[in-house]
Every structure is written in C-alpha cells, then in structure tokens.
Design a protein that fits this description.
Blueprint lengths: L5 H5 L9 E6 L2 E11 L10 E7 L1 E5 L4 E5 L3 E4 L6 E15 L18 E2 L1
Parallel strand pairs: 1-8
Antiparallel strand pairs: 1-2, 2-7, 3-6, 3-7, 4-5, 4-7
Length: about 120
C-alpha cells in the first residue's frame, strides 16, 4: 500500500492525451492525463469510462449534445457511446477504466497509446 499524491504525479509529465497509470484496483486502471485541444471521435464497445476533472474545464462532445465537466466533477460515458473530449485550455483529469481499455477505443491513430507508462 502506498498513498498517492496527485499533484506530485501531475508534475512528472507534460505531454497531452497520453494517460499515465497511477494505480490499479479490481481490474481497473486509475490514470492521470493532461488534455489540451480536441481528441478524436471514438467509443469503447465493452467498457464504461469515467472522467474526473482535477483542474480546468473538459467538454465531452456527443453526437447530439455537449456536456461540460468542471473542476471537482465527473462524468461516466457508457460503453458503446461515441464521444470526443475537448479541452480549450489545459485540463488535468483522472480516468477510471478497465485495464484492457485502449485510450482511443475503436479509433486507432496518432492519439493511440498502446503501452501506458506507470508513474
């Protein structure tokens, strides 16, 4: 058992859209990420995805609406729902998702991170 200082972990990296593993429980990774700009449209066929905003304002665009998630708020995107995260300014977020989840889901491309770093 080790306690985790989120602020300290966030200071260890600066790259955007590249989640870092900070913990694991019950087959799920706890990841930190820094986001800026627009991600890609994608979905996760078999996994729900939870975004918890630590700092900043994250918008999650869906085909029929956009939901804004502010500091201290979270949103669970159900499996199979197509979405696109957007961060107009830098956002720090914690993401909870199964170990098997690929960050870009069903859409592989420049943002895809096959092997995640553990910090």
């Amino acid at each position: 058992m080790e306690k985790v200082n989120i602020k300290n972990k966030l200071s260890l990296f600066s790259d955007y859209w590249s989640p870092k593993i900070i913990g694991e429980l019950n087959g799920q990774y706890v990841k930190l990420c820094k986001l800026k700009g627009e991600f890609v449209w994608h979905k996760h066929d078999n996994e729900d995805e939870m975004f918890y905003v630590i700092d900043g304002l994250l918008k999650i665009e869906f085909r029929d609406k956009t939901i804004s998630i502010d500091k201290g708020e979270f949103l669970i995107v159900p499996k199979g729902v197509e979405h696109k995260p957007i961060a107009e300014k830098e956002v720090s977020a914690m993401v909870f998702e199964p170990v098997s989840t690929l960050n870009t889901g069903d859409t592989k491309g420049d943002f895809t991170v096959e092997k995640l770093d553990k910090i």
